[in-house]
Design a protein that fits this description.
The chain contains 16 helices and twelve strands. With 504 residues, it is an alpha+beta fold. The chain has a domain of 140 residues: Phosphorylase Kinase, domain 1, CATH 3.30.200.20. The strands form four sheets. It has a five-stranded antiparallel beta sheet. Strands 6-8-9 form a three-stranded antiparallel beta sheet. A two-stranded antiparallel sheet has the order 7-10. Strand 4 and strand 5 form a beta hairpin. Helix 6 runs antiparallel to helix 7. The radius of gyration is 26 Å and the shape is globular. It binds adenosine-5'-triphosphate and magnesium ion. The site of magnesium ion (MG) has 4 residues, from loops. Keywords: Kinase, Transferase. It comes from Polyplosphaeria fusca. InterPro entries: Kinase-like_dom_sf, Prot_kinase_dom, Ser/Thr_kinase_AS. It holds the Pfam family Pkinase. One of its GO terms (molecular function) is ATP binding.
Length: 504
Amino acid sequence: MNAYPFYSRPVQGLTQGSPRAAAMPLKQKLGSLLARVRADKPRIATLHTESTPGLGGNHHSPPVDERNTHTDHEKPVSLPSPPHQSLAAATAFTDRFKDCGLIAEGGNGVVHACEDLRLGKLVAVKTLSRSSTPLPREVLTLQQLGDHPNIVRCFDVLDDPADPWKQKIIFELCEMDLVDYWETQWPEGTDVPEMFLWHVLKQVGAALAHVHGRGVVHGDLKPPNVLLVPEKPWPRLILTDFGAARIDPPTSVPRCHMGTYGWHPPEINVYGPANDMWGLGCVVHWLALGHEPTSNRDLGPQNADEWFANERRHVPAHTPSPECFKQYCLWHAQHFPVPERIDRFTKYASIQRSKLMNYFMMRSLEMRFWSRITAFELNRFMSVLYDFVQGITEMGKEGVLEHFDEGRSETWECIKAVSDSDIFFQIFTACHSWSHYVKNDRLIGLAKPLLDIMDSADFAKAHKLLGRPMIRGPPAIQELETQLGDMLKDVGPAAQDDSNRENL
Ligand SMILES: Nc1ncnc2c1ncn2[C@@H]1O[C@H](COP(=O)(O)OP(=O)(O)OP(=O)(O)O)[C@@H](O)[C@H]1O
Ligand SMILES: [Mg+2]
């Protein structure tokens, strides 16, 4: 009953007739293509040290972001587009790039792999309609974001030699997107390992924290917009497609015509960072169960205008497209959001994920956007939790990830208020009891970093358990002890006695 068979596991949707299907062989060939290009040409690293002009010979502009660590050539550049295509502009692209084949065709643009003939490296070139602004919105947003390991890098913008109404954006080339990875790595019937779900929360959470910190809302988070670069133990995840993104968007204006149905949050009239968190929850839900958290409701054939009027709804002021808004509302009425737990056996999953993983997925899929976890919280928690869960798994003590009361019912209704910090405290207590019981300090050693993500009350309780003085954070204790030692050395033994007396 999935409205989006394109991304669902039971239906091999993106095969027949899909533009992505046509692109698959190229993706498989990319590895050998890269190897050939590298063998034919001098090494890219050597070329990067040379001072080379920008990718587009017809432009001359300074780099966008001085903070990034790339060579001059690789820096994203700010290039005003000429109002009319010149002959030089038309030839610049063809002189410089050789088309190596289609990667994928999205809703807004077509992406090809191209070889940069001067540098002997492969890049991804997205061709899309020329925007009203000199630079495409996507590029303006990427300028605002600067450099981040989990955000796609844009090198240049050029005119399309074949069509003056089109532009070409030159991006770093990634191996594949999350849909392709999922299909190749975990074919039908195989479950995605839990550690990969933690990896997704950690890396996409880090990307979103950066994006939201710069006042940007991505607005179209879904698996095809997450790219991968091979790394161990898991590929690095790279957020792309900022075509629907907005910088400092007004929260009260619905952006129903942006993004993709099925990955939209339940709040229709609000646009903000919480929408992206819902998208992240959907990605985890889809990886774990093979479908997004939506369910169909049969309303019969409906005309959006009539249905909207019958429902006595109103189009909010400043809505860019009332028609789209009405259709969007109808779509929502036909597909209501129903996140399913992933810590239970279901017909979609033959393995249970931990209760803690389920907790974070559901925190991203909170129906009320104001209580949804933020990217900043998630990023902070994941910096500690990823290593903790990995350590626990290596020890074979995954059981402690179940030892907490989340205060929610089976259907995630709130029964009693339990904070994130309280969950960490409960898990810490479970680790402490186990370590105490078997007289083995390894588990409590792994759990100690959880102190850093607890609030002060839980931190104090946890410290009491350990029987240690209450100073925030282990590094802080060490630093204070060193400082105190130095001060006491300076003032001599008499002062040390005084200080000891005061402490007593
Ligand atoms: N830098 C890249 N490296 C490799 N593949 C890429 C790259 N950029 C995009 N792709 C592929 O092309 C597809 C479409 O790209 P993108 O999402 O940017 O286009 P779009 O038209 O805005 O998409 P949408 O349909 O989401 O609106 C991606 O899902 C991905 O598979
Ligand atoms: Mg896309």
